[in-house]
Structures are given as C-alpha cells and as structure tokens.
C-alpha cells in the first residue's frame, strides 16, 4: 500500500511540471551574485572621460581657469596675454583697464558695498559714517595740530620745543578723552537706530574714532552729508 501511493504521486498527471524544474535559478545551491553577473552586460573596459577632458580634446578648453596666486603670476599672465596682441590692441586693453579701475574707485568713494572694504560694508557702518560726518568734535583737529607740533619740533629752539612737547601731550589727552566719548555716543545712537544689530561695542567705537581723526577730504568713502545735516 505504501509503494502504490508513492508511485501514484510520482506519475500524477495533474502535477505542475514547473515544480520539478531543476534550473540554476531554482536550485538551492545557485549563487545569486553569479546569476546577476551573467545577466549584466559587459562593460566598455575604460572609465568615462570627464567633460573638461573632452572639451580640451576638441579645442574648446586649453586648461583649468584659476585665479593667480601671487602678483608675480598675475604679471606673467598679463605679459603672456599682451604678447599675443598687436600694439593697438594693447593700447585699447590698457585704456579699458584704466577706465575700469577708475570706475571701481569712484564707486568705492561713493560707498558702494560691492567695492568698499569689508570694514565699511553694511547699512550700520554707513549710518555711523554719516553721523561722524555731521558732527564737529575736538578730535577732528588731531591731524592738523599734530602736524603743527611736528614742525615746531624741527626748529632748533629749546623753548619752542618745550612748549610744543607740552602741547602735544595735551593734544593726546584731549584726543583720548574725546575719542572715548565719541565711541560711546556712536554706539548709543546705532543701538537706537538699529536695535537688532550686533555691530556695536569697541569695534564700532574705534571705527568712528578713526574716521573722525581724518580730514574730511581724505575720508574713504567720501562724506555724503555736511556738518549739521540731519540723518
């Protein structure tokens, strides 16, 4: 009875033939990685060339465009470019460079944030400059008086040198005291105008003092207001 049942199940016509498939995919010992490698197309055997290499091969690029590291390198690049130009082209290029430099200088003097120094950028620093330019203080006369004292120091007169030295010491004291008061005042008005700013403290006070000690004609950026104007 047991042998007859075994034989009938082996020859059962209703059994699916797929259940007895012994192919590599259904065999328990088959390696999935090897099967996947068999189905994967063969590679081209070399890495894909980079875009810049392809452009260089077609003549669209001669090399990587990098900024010069030193002034010597910048000068050598400029000479190499000028060597490939005619005399008229060099004149035109130099005239264009002078015009561009002058334009940048004028924009810097006007206070354009794209061209001024990092210390002068921002609305807060612009307001501090305007406040200093609209007020007259004793510290504004530091440089003229210092030059006056230096001239008197060069005169070989002991009495005159004694008085000039004392005048210079008094000038230093006045500048220090007025500079401290100026720095505190500028910080106060900046906080009132820009309550959320963090550009205050010693840095802002020193910035105001340095501008106040310079003559108006030498201040950079150029003053936009006159003494006594409201800002």
UniProtKB/TrEMBL annotation:
Pfam families: DUF3043. The chain crosses the membrane at residues 138-156, 162-183. Residues 1-102 are annotated as: Disordered. InterPro entries: DUF3043. Keywords: Membrane, Transmembrane, Transmembrane helix. The keyword Zinc does not apply. Residues 70-102 have a biased composition (Basic and acidic residues). The keyword Protein biosynthesis does not apply. This is DUF3043 family protein. It comes from Dietzia psychralcaliphila.
